[in-house]
Design a protein that fits this description.
52% strand, 295 residues, mainly beta, four-stranded antiparallel β-sheet, 28 strands
């Protein structure tokens, strides 16, 4: 199913019975309980582009570009309410909420850690600015992994003491970093030349694992990644998508395996569906049966 919308959908997240997606103008909630339709529940104005999105305890945390961090209350998905804002000096790019903490990455301010227990007001507990312009983020155990894509740097930041954040290591990658995803003890890094897997089994000691190169250097490269079970879903800025079986022998990434119309944004996965922001048409719900048929 496709939910058409004006503007350019950039990110989507799935809650209990609803999905939330955002573009450069609006925040929209849809009903996901119906197998044959996705009716819109509510729309709200939300300025600037949202680059990252996280849901926790009926609240949506938006890495809202030049607006910093914005928090919406989705206790009633049909009536979203703006609850809090946290300004930053640059462009807020990624956000994760975990164990009562909000991890926010901003291009200028770096990694910010905020208390999420009561979002009014948001309280900063710690901050650290690594080299480069950080954009992507995952959190695994005692470390945050922050990617400064254009600098090809992956920073491993110790977060056990939020008041004393520091770099444990910096890993240089072979090409620019576009996306990060975490599954179990593996970090999936989307690079300009393919997909790199990093083994995080031993805390604090990442080990380079499998590498999935692009079959043809002239191909468009993946931009976003989401991982569910044994499969990785990738999308690029030119309307292409890939589905990789992570249990199969490593092979080069070949031609796209599912079509889009425009730029594929940050996806969200459930056991049944993949929700794909497609800037050509809106947000598409496709069956997550590893064939990616429109559902």
């Amino acid at each position: 199913r496709t939910v058409a919308m004006k503007g350019y959908p950039s990110a989507v997240a799935v809650g209990d019975g609803y999905a939330l997606f955002v573009n450069n103008e609006r925040l929209i909630t849809i009903d996901t309980t119906m197998p044959t339709a996705c009716p819109v529940l509510a729309e709200r104005d939300n300025p600037d582009t949202v680059f990252g999105l996280a849901l926790a305890a009926n609240r949506a945390y938006l890495a809202n570009g030049s607006q910093g961090l914005r928090v919406w209350d989705l206790t009633d998905p049909a009536a979203p309410v703006a609850r809090a804002a946290y300004p930053t000096h640059g462009i807020a790019m990624s956000v994760i909420v975990q164990d009562g903490l909000v991890y926010l990455v901003d291009c200028d301010d770096g990694l910010q850690i905020l208390a999420a227990d009561d979002p009014v007001p948001l309280t900063r507990l710690g901050a650290f600015t690594p080299l480069g312009a950080p954009e992507r983020l995952v959190v695994a155990g005692d470390y945050a992994y922050v990617a400064s894509g254009f600098a090809s740097n992956l920073h491993q930041i110790a977060i056990t003491d939020t008041a004393q954040l520091h770099t444990a290591a910096t890993h240089l990658t072979a090409s620019m970093i576009y996306g990060l995803a975490l599954r179990n003890n593996a970090l999936y890094v989307v690079l300009e030349d393919g997909l790199q897997v990093i083994d995080l089994m031993t805390p604090g000691q990442p080990v380079l694992g499998q590498h999935y190169p692009l079959a043809d250097a002239a191909m468009p490269h993946p931009w976003h990644i989401a991982v569910q079970g044994a499969h990785a879903y990738l999308g690029d800025t030119q309307g292409n998508g890939w589905l990789l079986d992570l249990t199969a022998p490593v092979q080069p990434i070949g031609p796209p395996t599912y079509p889009a119309v425009g730029n594929v944004g940050a996806m969200s996965l459930t056991d049944a569906y993949a929700y794909v922001p497609d800037q050509g048409v809106g947000v598409r719900r496709v069956a997550n049966d590893h064939h990616l048929d429109v559902a």
